[in-house]
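Page header: ASSEMBLY MODEL / two components / 1132 residues total.
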Amino acid sequence: MTDQNWSILIPEIFLFIWALFIFGLDLGIKRKNPKILGYSAMAGLTITGILLAIFNGGILFKGMFQSDQLAIFFKVIFIGSAFMAVGSSFDIASEKIRHHRGEYYGLILFSTVGMMFLSSASELITLYIGMELTTIPLYVLAAFYKDDKLSVEAGLKYLIVGAFSSAILLYGLSLLYGLTGTTDIVTMKINLSLVFLSYGKIGPGLILAMIMVIAGIGFKLALVPFHMWAPDVYQGAPTPITAFLSVGSKAAGVVAFARIFVNGLIAFASDVMKPLDWGIIVAILAAAAMILGNITALRQRNIKRMLAYSSIAQIGYVMVGMVAASELGIASVGYYMFIYLFANMGAFTIATIFNDKTGSDGIISYSGLSKTSPIFAAYMSIFLLSLAGIPPLGGFAAKYLVFAAGIQAGYTWLVIVALLTSVVSLYYYANIIKTMYFSAEEPTIKIHPSFPANLVLLISVIGIILFGIFPGPILDWALESAKIFAF
Amino acid sequence: MNQTLFLIPLFPLIGFLLNGLFLGRLNKKLISLIACGSVGLSFIVGLKMFFQLISLPENTRAIEEILFTWIPSGEFVVSFGYLFDPLSAIMVLVVSGVGFLIHVYSVGYMHDDPGYGRYFTYLNLFIFAMLTLVLANNYLLMFVGWEGVGLCSYLLIGFWFEKKSASDAGKKAFIVNRIGDFGFILGLFIIFWNVRSLDYNEVFVRAPEVFALGGGLITAATLLLFLGATGKSAQIPLYVWLPDAMEGPTPVSALIHAATMVTAGVYMIARSNVLFMLAPSTMTVVAIVGIATALLAATIALAQNDIKRVLAYSTISQLGYMFTACGVAAFAAGIFHLMTHAFFKALLFLGSGSVIHALAGQQDMRYMGGLKRHMKTTYVTFFIATLAIAGIPGLSGFFSKDEILWKAFSSNQGSIWIWLVALFTALMTAFYMFRLVFLTFYGQERMDHHTKEHLHESPKMMTVPLSILAVLSIIGGYVGIPHILGGGNQFEKFLEPVMKGVHHGGEEHALASSGHSAGTELTLMFGSVALILVSIYLSYYLYVKNVALVGRLRNSVSGIHKIIYGKFFIDELYNAIIIRPLVGGSLFLWKIVDVVLIDGVLNGLAILIGDVSLGARKMQSGQLRRYATVFLAGVVIIIGYFALR
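Prediction written out in full:
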């Protein structure tokens, strides 16, 4: 572990500097050209992506930071979601937040840097710091509409519950350290099995540690029952931030979960280790998330709240792949997040544009959108159908893979729950499509997104269709990244 | 290896996307340039690959390009790859070559149609799907192309969808084809279940190890594949859609419902020759269905008055010929006839299109006549195609048809009965085709005065493709001159590497083993030609020299005529025994089972879930302390769960 390859840190360093640069730029240009900040944020993210393609593969700081395939896979998702969040912000940036554009874009980039650190962390402290770096800018961003009560409330709720969960997570991590004497995840794995082999058992402290870590990361994932904050925050926060929270921030939680549980605590996944197994508890939480998320989403009248519950349910599906704790499981989780990136960012982007034009988030106000803006209605339908898992869109292949992994690992009951609840989910997704296409009301609203938002939508639609029909390339990559866990 | 194969289907796909995305926003010149150009480019690449292929040594003549893994799902792995071997080479050249000519012809034919852009969009999509079908390196990708051409066929039959008969015909074609497709995919399931792969290479190598010769599984699988073929290639019992498909624009009939798509079934069986050779009973079924279809369709064609319907039944009949060839293990002869048929049948359809164009939409031959004076090029080319299909020596149809007749007679799987029926069908073919020519181009002009004044030869855009196809109809057969006439049957030899299921021993060996002498072959050949000439004279006598006799004859056998004219009432039969009971059953399922039973249960369930949802929504009070409480309660409950376990 002497390989001190500093170059693998270049993407993170670059993005950090670029964020500072955007702060400065905001002062420099004096708000003459409102779009230049957004474009430079998008450019910075693009360059980071290119740098990531050049400088990767290696370890740094004696293995505390590693740029392996899994990290890179998720970094692409983070960068993608930040790129799309920025792209869909142009409309609100010209009006609602015009005095703080620099901070807005800069904080998104800071949060992205945090996620990138988090996904490369192979050690608990780094992981925790990465998570805080991710979340703290998001507290501010959630409350960014300073004059809007809902937004401020969202930020405050997010902060308080976040701090609460952060404490619990830290407590769990410290217990893990206490049990194993190390913060390095791989060493922890070895030490745990050594302890187990020498004494034949491990004390109840490990259960406590696992539950607290699950709760702490469960907050980021909005996993039931740690999800209560999500609908309020999702509704109140600026919509692009909601999108970013629901995709980027969740993906960060997913990768943290994978690193700790599917790598470090893999030995305790199956019920062979009863009563020290985390698999069953995560499976129950996943089932609860799918049931509660989907059923509560049914009666929502606000599209952002509906999407919030939908994303609570979606993380349940992701966790089906996670509890499988296999190569296919992790690969299916990666693939799922990749498609989810397109579908959810796309849906939220439409919601942003629509809200900006009409000031409304009510599902009913989407009536007749197909007549005035047929292209955007079609886009929205594609996003929603992909979230519901309808072939040939990406969401179908994603669900299929996750279910396959679940069945392979013996969680047949969980897959049955997942199948049934996805039937329920089709109702509320299709309900929006019905409102857009078959409503008798005379449509009045026509939406005209800015160029970057159009770009985001186009990328999402192409991604969903292309990778739905040809899942091969992404899946191969995801399988490759899952290999680092050495199952 | 440098990859160029994927370009062949890519060009029409690009053409489809360009014309489809900018539908109606491009001017006609640009649309036709994109549409024709893309297919032309495919043909050029196909030609280049063809020469690359024949430069390879005979046993290694196959170029495979795997683009990427399409579906990796456990054991079920399907690659997205193209295979260019002698068989697909011929198909690619026929599809893109004839396709190109028909595209060019369409520029003239469809010139005034409001759906011009849509037409070429569909046509490009069709070429893309058809090329995917023939280039696929595995059954699943072939199935994608198979479904794709079915879709395009549906779209193009119903192209003039404002006409009810057209949209009905489109639906009929689609639904009948679905029955076949269902069989096809079931066949694929059986193959995959046993061989664990759908790649041609693996399937054909492993099938002889996995399946017992003549065993139940392989017989079932091949019968199901054959069911798929009867749908697409319009054979008994699923042929009923093809005559109705003539509702589409005539170039579509030429391209899709004569030259290319309908031959997909023949291609598929020739491709699967290894499998079919393992199932002798299926082979017998194929031969019998083929020859029965050929006979039935030829009989119906005798009495039709619509020029396109005669050609449609003729197509069904000729397809029956190809299947007969496959059924007697003469796959190469089937493909040979497929190719020559593509030339002359496309020409016949395009010629009839030219006639219809000149007569302002008139398709009934009773109102034609005397056209040879007005439409020189159309007449000459049409006549050449008729000679070819009738099997007059020197033209392409003679070589391929004679090959099939001889194989039906001499092959181990053949029999003298099949040969007799095939010969009889050939006589009828010559008869009805010349009847068509005489009614259309000879005798008195029977159209009304106004139409007669406007008679004109079609524009160059249409006559040039006709002339090229006419040349091909003449020379197309010279690649397969049989040994007996001093040729080397290059065509069969070229296909030999693909026909792994057939044991090759050279022509001499085959002759010796089947115990037929060269003399027999020559006698049969000259005998059949002589009979065909008699048949043509009969047609001439009845429809040109002694027209009054036909009417009298028809009256004397009016019962039989009615049955033949009514196409043996097969459509009515299907309607009575399949469609009506189905509709009745569906009504029951809808009104009783669906509305009362299922909807009742489901609506109840939905209301229940909706109420639960309302309750769950109330949990979300907005109070932060409750959120934190739930959070903590969650942790405590989970710990409690572990403690109590």
